[in-house]
Design goal:
Blueprint lengths: L5 E2 L13 H11 L7 E4 L1 H11 L6 H6 L5 H13 L4 H16 L5 E7 L15 E5 L2 H13 L4 H10 L7 E7 L5 E6 L10 E8 L3 H4 L6 E6 L5 E5 L5 E5 L5 E5 L2 H4 L6 H18 L3 E8 L2 E9 L23 E3 L3 H4 L6 H21 L11 E4 L2 E5 H8 L7 H7 L9 H4 L5 H40 L8 H44 L3 H8 L10 H13 L3 H9 L14 H13 L19 H12 L7 H19 L5 H46 L13 H9 L6 H16 L6 E3 L29 E3 L14 E4 L7 H4 L4 E4 L7 H9 L2
Parallel strand pairs: 18-19, 19-20
Antiparallel strand pairs: 1-2, 2-5, 3-4, 3-5, 6-7, 6-12, 7-8, 8-9, 10-11, 12-13, 14-16, 14-17, 15-16
Helix pairs in contact: 4-6, 12-17, 13-14, 16-17, 16-24, 17-18, 17-24, 18-23, 19-21, 19-22
């Protein structure tokens, strides 16, 4: 008769299907020499034999799967019979011998874990569905735990999961009996960043005590992001670690408070980080794929407790050669000054997975259009504490290929702070390749400019059709496969929309850099100011249009006193279009939301509500206009006058033979500026379509896992949401809870510096004794008035007309309010940013 228990290292992984996923994974680790605690594995047939001896045929797992409906009460009764039945003597003897052997090697307590045949496999995880019992001291406790593992198959959720996998799914449950590791520090590591798909980065979560608190999301751990190749620490966030799960001397576990001083101390030493990073690389190399690894450390010995396949976002294939040698990450300059304007604050995993590759692709296309080569392994975009940053070192290195443009020009166009460390990269790049590609670059630029307007016109027709089709779908009525198809359609539309917008942006950037070079030649230090004035009063800029429309609605609303009174007196949060007195204003606002309701504050964050969902900013803008004096603001006419004066000044300084070419170049810059703003609006519309899918996916997740919450999909990646849609029984609540905790922790942390070298500091604040704040001018003019600092939309009601509006990041969703301000100051952004374009259009 075959043995009921085998030592884990004697189980051959390729022949271990009968032992279950967890046992097979541990066997592979142990046989490869990884530090796995001593363990024994029990094959699934032992449990099947036990079911046969204590249950009627109709109560066994396979029969229950084929039954049309099984009441929960019946399943509970069957599970109770399994737990109360007497184990066969061969099982009792096998367990007794295994415990004796492990005790002889120093074991005190044991962990008993289920190892189902359908568990921990690629594409079928079933993580957390079956039982794990910790720190069992006595033999009878271990024997009872084995029966508990077997009884877990009768949980309604498990049977539902197995039924969805099909008729051929194995239902047997194996068991692993493992020496309990009295971990002082433990956690989870990912051999590849599970949110960004960065294969060069190991992500480690660590906390005190046993790892169950980390795995189940009951504690906020430290998070370390480590460069896999060099072992350098990319970022470190110290978690709350308020409590830990510890072993009870008499058996079992309990939660214990962590001393306040210890909470603020990193759980891992530098040496332990290096050890875990090396371990991650070796495990990934052995299995040949990304892994989610549970680990524990006791007395400086690291143990691997489990290693599962993990789904990571795919990274598009990139052309180009690799860099000769990697950057020293301690000298990399990072900044979010430009990108932080479009997407300020902490980003949800869903948004990151959608936009990170979009941003990377955008930069590659823009530089390619300028004739620059981009290394295939260039890291252009990164995240620190949940916020998106640009790698200025890499960007400047690429830009330095253009001989007449210093990288500082690009940095300052985006509003960034030029760091002296960037000078080191300029001398390293050769312009030879740029000159060799120059004829091809010029020809491509001319060709794309010639056809671009026709492409845009064709795209507009296609986009209108797709918008109508997708917005006409009610996702609540779709089968899971239909919702997944809708998600795929939205992703395809983003690719199409992004492609044409990025082409326009690449051409705009090229034209702007040439124009700035000419302005500096003809105007010297006055060139930067003249550039801003030449791009004022462009007229018909899509992102500025909502502000003008709301101003007109406010002017007409004065003819309806009841409407004005309602808007001025009610709480902003209570105002709705339907709640206004019927009339022209109500109709106009309804049309406004139909046309522009897809926009919103932090509109690039897919989890953020749109104006159509939360019209607070719309009503705050109306209130500001209505509270001010009657009459239309004429600052936009001033912008046109400023532009005309700047054109006249430019013509005087440009030699007559060059004037037609410079005029043509200026027209190109203006045309591409309008085009970029218009197409960006389409991108925001598509992000709103992603939001509709994510909200519906969240509703479905919450229906089967209430503990996941109503926003669950936003804490999953795009690939993970797809997996939820095609697998009705994929369980994500614990993953979502862990990530939500991490998101909330990142939000609570002080904002990292907008620009830093190497790694962000842990300083809580930056203090200054200066009496003046200096920055880049995005538009012309002087404003004087009371300063109103708005940290978030919840304080919109405090804003009064004519105040100087100060916000950390003025993304397009804030724009309508700009027209009611005398001036705007923002920490993020630059002359080429969306907010700057809108402010110049408004004359603010």
């Amino acid at each position: 008769m075959p043995r009921v228990l085998k030592r884990i290292e004697s189980v051959v992984p390729r022949k271990a299907s009968g032992y279950g996923g967890k046992a097979r994974g541990l066997a592979a680790l142990a046989r490869a020499g990884f530090p796995v605690p001593a363990a024994y594995a029990m094959p699934g047939w032992v449990g099947d034999s036990f079911y046969s001896s204590v249950l009627e045929i109709e109560d066994r797992p396979r029969a229950l799967l084929n039954a049309p409906h099984v009441p929960d009460e019946r399943l509970q009764s069957i599970a109770e019979r399994v737990r109360e039945a007497t184990l066969p003597q061969d099982v009792v003897r096998g367990v007794s011998d295994a415990l004796l052997a492990m005790r002889g090697e120093g074991a005190i307590g044991f962990a008993v874990r289920s190892s189902a045949m359908h568990e921990d496999q690629e594409g079928v995880s079933a993580a957390g569905m079956h039982s794990t019992l910790l720190n069992l001291m006595r033999e009878d406790e271990v024997l009872d735990a084995i029966k508990t593992c077997w009884s877990s198959v009768f949980r309604p959720r498990v049977l539902s999961y197995l039924r969805a996998l099909g008729d051929d799914v194995p239902v047997s449950v194996g068991v692993v009996i493992q020496v309990m590791v009295p971990a002082e520090v433990s956690g989870v590591l990912f051999t590849t960043n599970p949110l960004t798909g960065d294969a060069g980065e190991v992500v480690i979560n660590a906390s005190y005590g046993l790892g169950s608190a980390v795995v189940e999301g009951r504690v906020t751990p430290d998070t370390y992001r480590v460069d896999k190749a060099t072992g350098q620490l990319r970022d470190q966030i110290i978690g709350g670690k308020a409590h830990q799960t510890v072993l009870e001397p008499s058996g079992g576990v309990r939660d214990a408070a962590v001393a306040p001083a210890q909470r603020e101390t990193p759980a891992l030493s530098e040496q332990q980080l290096l050890h875990l990073t090396d371990l991650a690389a070796r495990i990934e190399s052995h299995f040949g794929d990304a892994r989610d690894v549970e680990w524990g450390i006791t007395e400086q010995q690291v143990y691997v407790l489990q290693a599962r396949p993990v789904v990571v976002p795919s990274v598009r294939n990139r052309r180009g050669s690799r860099r000769d040698r990697p950057w020293d990450r301690r000298k990399l300059v990072w900044s979010n000054v430009n990108v932080g304007e479009a997407l300020p604050g902490v980003v949800t995993p869903f948004t990151w997975s959608v936009l990170s590759q979009f941003s990377d692709l955008g930069f590659r296309r823009a530089f390619g259009a300028m004739g620059c080569s981009v290394p295939r392994d260039a890291e252009l975009v990164g995240d620190f504490r949940g916020r998106i940053y640009l790698n200025l070192t890499e960007l400047s290195s690429i830009m330095s290929q253009v001989p007449w443009i210093h990288p500082s020009t690009l940095v300052r166009l985006g509003g960034g702070q030029y760091a002296a460390e960037l000078d080191d990269v300029v001398a390293e790049r050769s312009s030879t390749g740029f000159f060799l590609r120059l004829p091809q670059t010029v020809a491509r630029y001319a060709r794309e400019n010639f056809r671009l307007q026709a492409r845009v016109d064709e795209f507009e027709e296609h986009f209108a059709e797709e918008r109508m089709r997708i917005n006409g779908i009610d996702p609540r009525l779709l089968e899971p496969s239909g919702l997944e198809r809708m998600l795929g359609d939205v992703e395809h539309l983003l690719d199409e929309t992004g492609s044409i917008m990025l082409t326009a942006y690449a051409n705009l950037l090229t034209a702007v850099l040439v124009l700035i070079g000419l302005l500096r030649t003809f105007q010297g230090s006055r060139g930067s100011g003249l550039y801003r004035e030449l791009l004022s009063g462009l007229q018909d800029v899509a992102s500025a249009r909502p502000g003008f429309v709301l101003r007109q609605i406010a002017a007409r609303a004065r003819q309806e006193p009841e409407v004005v009174q309602r808007i001025l007196d009610a709480e902003l949060s209570d105002l709705t279009v339907s709640g206004l007195p019927a009339g022209r204003t109500q109709d106009a606002l309804g049309r406004f939301l139909e046309d522009y309701g897809f926009r919103g504050i932090r509109e690039a964050e897919i989890a953020a509500p749109r104006w159509s969902e939360d019209p607070t900013l719309m009503f705050a803008t109306l209130r500001a206009h209505l509270a001010g004096p009657p009459g239309l603001d004429d600052r936009d006419q001033d912008s046109q006058r400023i532009r005309e004066e700047a054109e006249e000044q430019l013509n005087k300084s440009v030699p007559f033979p060059l004037r037609p070419s410079v005029t043509k170049l200026l027209d190109v810059v203006r045309r591409f500026t309008r085009m970029r703003e218009h197409l960006r609006g389409h991108v925001v519309e598509v992000l709103g379509m992603f939001r509709r899918v994510a909200l519906e996916a969240s509703r479905r997740i919450e229906a089967r896992e209430p503990e996941a919450g109503s926003d669950a999909a936003f804490f999953l990646t795009l690939a993970e949401v797809r997996r939820v849609l095609y697998d009705d029984n994929e369980r994500v609540a614990i993953r979502v809870q862990r990530r939500r905790l991490e998101y909330e922790r990142n939000e609570a942390l002080p904002e990292p510096p907008s620009t830093f070298v190497g790694f962000p500091t842990d300083d809580a604040a930056i203090t200054s004794t200066a009496k003046r704040l200096r920055g880049l001018a995005a538009s012309r003019g002087v404003a004087e008035g009371r300063v109103r600092i708005l940290r978030d939309p919840s304080h919109l009601a405090d804003f009064a007309p004519g105040e100087v509006l100060v916000v950390a990041a003025a993304d397009t969703g804030w724009a309508p309010l700009f027209l009611a301000a005398s001036g705007v100051a923002t920490e993020l952004g630059g002359p080429l940013s969306h907010a700057a374009i809108i402010l110049r259009e408004y004359g603010v």
